[in-house]
Write a structure and sequence with these properties.
heterodimer, A: about 260 residues, about 85% helix, about 0% strand, elongated, B: about 250 residues, alpha/beta, Rossmann fold, 10 strands, about 35% helix
Chain lengths: ~260, ~250
């Protein structure tokens, strides 16, 4: 049992996971106990959900457009241009939509959470909260968790919607794919389970972003340098976690919502 | 002078280390109700660390801290909340919430304790700001306040919920003599008007002479001196006289 602890990195990693687990446990305990400040939740929905829309829409539009063009260039050579719609749609629902939204939100929201909470930590504002008998998890983490759990599935849906709209425009107006074929095939091969998978992944990625961001903020030390370090680490850790956990989620969710088939 | 007064705070054999450095090496101190205790000591000597233990912001390595007879050393964050409601704290740099105006900062403890009547909140905030001579500044953001104003706003936030004890962490550090004097008078006024117990951590002797009922000197992690202001000044202990007169024994 002593073996893994002899490596400082392994020890630090285990410690980090432990702290994260405690934060998650404390947050959900507070939510279940009804210690939710709804005014702050609404404020965070505006910050996280409403404020991330532009980034997510632009990401969706250009990903949908470029992915459609690439698929068309490959499939058209095989006389399969009518397959562009289903391929783009399934790829966006099952992978690109949730992953790209997750990465964008990690970059925008995760960094902001870590920087804001980290600055509060190094300027003793978190201690001031505690001294005023206000639990920092209840006041800072719970509203952000509630807000991102509500916002993220909507942002994923929005990203996919705009990506598909861009895909339709590029395929039919620029690449001259028959619009009826495009829509008909896309509709036939895209199932509600693909959308459920997208929203499920978005929900999990939301939890990664909020807990990594808040944990980094709450453990910030060493002044302005520490805030910068925490912010960078929040984005790096949450982005890498999203990419890694996405693989395991895909494998697990594919058992519940198997891919393939048409109506 | 305070032997027959009931202790609000009792600290026994308090020990704390930060990293490998032993900051507190067995602090014993009693603070009776209604008294203003000034805790003196060199910078980095553990005064603020000691103060943070009294409100549960730090957990002792060992030892006992009793507030109104209740042991708080081993309470968790949630169990500490009722204890913290009895104590106000003025942080060294104010620690105002920088996303809120002065008004919202001062109103924060009231709103968090369930007060929803905005008229009542307005009245109480106005009164607290008047006590600290900060009327007319309620719309400002903390970033637009001077150091002294930030401390006064923080003090208004600390006193608005009428705590029975206020902890002051270096209330005059970094302030000019005039603003320092204002803060000293304010501490005295709060003591006479609100009858609160005060624990003031400082190394400012002028401030000590203004506000102290009793003085303790923390040195090398232990209470080196504990007595009245008069006995402090009458002391012939070289450690105390050096501290009072600001002698370092460094060779030029």
């Amino acid at each position: 049992m002593k073996f893994p602890y002899s490596f400082p990195l392994t020890r630090a990693f285990c410690l980090y996971l432990g702290q994260l687990a405690f934060l998650i446990g404390e947050t959900f305990t507070s939510i279940l106990a009804g210690r939710v400040r709804w005014k702050l939740v609404l404020h965070q929905i505006v910050e996280i959900g409403f404020g991330s829309q532009a980034v997510v829409i632009i990401t969706g539009i250009f990903t949908g457009a470029v992915f459609t063009a690439q698929i068309f260039f490959q499939f058209n050579a095989l006389n399969m241009s009518s397959a562009v719609g289903p391929v783009v749609s399934i790829a966006l629902c099952r992978e690109l939509g949730p992953v790209l939204t997750g990465l964008m939100v990690a970059g925008r929201v995760g960094a902001a959470m870590s920087a804001e909470i980290g600055t509060m930590k190094v300027t003793e504002q978190i201690d001031a909260l505690r001294a005023l008998a206000v639990n920092p998890v209840d006041y800072l983490v719970v509203p952000r968790t509630m807000a991102i759990m509500i916002s993220m599935p909507l942002l994923v849906g929005e990203c996919i919607f705009f990506a598909l709209a861009a895909s339709y425009y590029v395929a039919t107006d620029i690449l001259n794919v028959n619009s009826v074929f495009f829509l008909q095939h896309m509709w036939s091969y895209t199932h509600s389970r693909d959308m459920v998978m997208a929203l499920s992944k978005g929900f999990v990625f939301a939890l990664i972003v909020v807990f990594v961001g808040c944990q980094q903020g709450l453990t910030t030390r060493d002044g302005a340098v520490g805030v910068g370090k925490s912010t960078t680490e929040a984005v790096v850790i949450s982005s890498l976690s999203i990419l890694m956990i996405n693989f395991f989620l895909t494998m697990a969710l594919n058992i519940i919502f198997p891919a393939g088939g048409r109506y | 002078m305070s032997a027959h007064r009931k202790n609000l705070i009792e600290v026994r054999d308090l020990r704390q280390t930060i990293g490998t450095q032993e900051i507190l090496r067995g602090v014993n101190l009693d603070i009776p109700k209604g008294e203003t205790l000034v805790l003196l000591g060199q910078s980095g000597g553990g005064k603020s660390v000691f103060l943070r233990h009294l409100i549960g912001l730090m957990r002792p390595l060992s030892g006992s801290i009793k507030i109104e007879g209740e042991e708080i050393a081993h309470l968790n964050e949630r169990e500490l909340e009722p204890v913290r409601r009895k104590i106000g704290m003025l942080f060294q740099d104010g620690a105002l919430f920088d996303s809120m105006t002065v008004f919202d900062n001062v109103a924060f403890p009231l709103r968090e304790r369930g007060e929803r009547n905005e008229k009542v909140i307005r009245e109480k905030v106005d009164h607290a700001l008047e006590l600290v001579s900060l009327q007319g500044q309620e719309g400002k953001m903390p970033v637009n306040l001077s150091g002294g104003m930030r401390k006064r706003a923080s003090l208004a936030r600390a006193i608005i919920s009428e705590p029975s004890c206020i902890l002051y962490d270096e209330p005059t550090a970094g302030l000019d003599p005039i603003v320092s004097d204002t803060i000293n008078k304010l501490i005295r006024r709060l003591q006479s008007q609100l009858h609160v117990t005060s624990i003031v951590v400082t190394h400012d002797m002028i401030s000590t002479d203004h506000i102290a009922d009793r003085v303790a000197l923390l040195r090398e992690g232990r209470i080196h001196f504990d007595g009245t202001l008069q006995s402090l000044h009458a002391s012939t202990d070289p450690v105390i006289t050096d501290f009072i007169e600001g002698r370092s024994h460094e060779i030029d």
